UniProtKB/TrEMBL annotation:
Cofactor descriptive note: Binds 2 magnesium ions per subunit.
CDD domains xrefs: HAD_BPGM
Chain sites annotated for binding substrate: D8, L9, D10, W24, K75, S113, A114, S115, K116, N117, K144
MF terms in GO: beta-phosphoglucomutase activity; magnesium ion binding; sugar-phosphatase activity
Annotated site residues (Important for catalytic activity and assists the phosphoryl transfer reaction to Asp8 by balancing charge and orienting the reacting groups) in this chain: S113, K144
Protein name, per record: Beta-phosphoglucomutase
Cofactor: Mg(2+)
Length: 215
């Protein structure tokens, strides 16, 4: 059976969480409250809309729909400004090694991300051409842990869910992969991501031997 490989973006391929943090912190400070790095953990893998809802809960702020939409736009404009100069130096360690391994064996590769900015980011860091399929925040209606994003990726790849392998750094992402019936590989803290089928701190820990067991 042909296998397919699905990668999350933020926290797996690049560390855009720090730029999301700067943009959310700027908005929080403008609204008169603090937003910490620890609180930012709650935002990983979560949609932009849900992030703003949580941020306003933290700041105890009520907003009209119009005001809410305006802050969404403002946050994204600031975020786009922070990521403007991203380049290949921001690719997380050994990600190209794994993508190259898969490409050389003609195995299909997809992106499965909650971000609406996924494509320009892949372009900036020079990895866009590796991806046969991109499913991102523009294509999904239900956020992780709902499996929708990975199921669309599997369908677009033409690979059965049971033959897909997902690399994820967020708990909700691991749960989405598991619910989809896919093989889940946790990238990050193994205690946090204990629901994953396999755990690695980062791609440097992933050997060619291990990859060979997946294909
Ligand atoms: P955007 P992932 C997620 O990316 C981020 O982890 C999350 O913090 C962010 O809010 C979300 O994308 C939406 O991003 O505002 O660019 O549409 O981990 O699913 O690749
Ligand atoms: Mg992520």
């Amino acid at each position: 059976e042909r296998k397919g490989f699905i990668f999350d973006l933020d926290g797996v391929i690049v560390d855009t969480a720090k730029y999301h943090y700067l943009a959310w912190k700027k908005l929080a400070n403008e609204l008169g409250f603090e937003f910490t790095l620890k609180q930012n953990e709650l935002f990983k893998g979560v949609s932009r809309k849900r992030c703003l809802e949580i941020l306003l809960e933290i700041g105890n702020i009520n907003a009209s729909q119009e005001q809410f939409d305006q802050w969404m736009v403002e946050k994204n404009e600031d975020y786009l400004h922070y990521i403007e100069k991203m380049n290949a130096s921001e690719i997380l360690p050994d990600v190209p090694k794994v993508l190259e391994f898969l490409k050389n064996r003609k195995l299909p590769i997809a992106l499965g991300s909650a971000s609406k900015n996924a494509k320009p980011i892949l372009e900036k860091v020079g990895l866009l051409s590796y991806f046969d399929v991109i499913v991102d925040g523009n294509n999904v209606t239900k956020a992780k842990p709902d499996p929708e994003v990975f199921l669309i990726a599997s369908s677009n790849l033409g690979v059965e869910p049971i033959n897909c392998v997902v690399f994820e750094d967020a708990v909700a992402g691991i749960q989405a992969a598991n619910t989809a019936g896919m093989v889940s590989v946790g990238i990050g803290d193994s205690k946090t991501l204990h629901e994953a089928n396999y755990n690695f701190r980062d791609f440097r820990e992933i050997s060619i031997e291990f990859l060979n067991t997946l294909i």
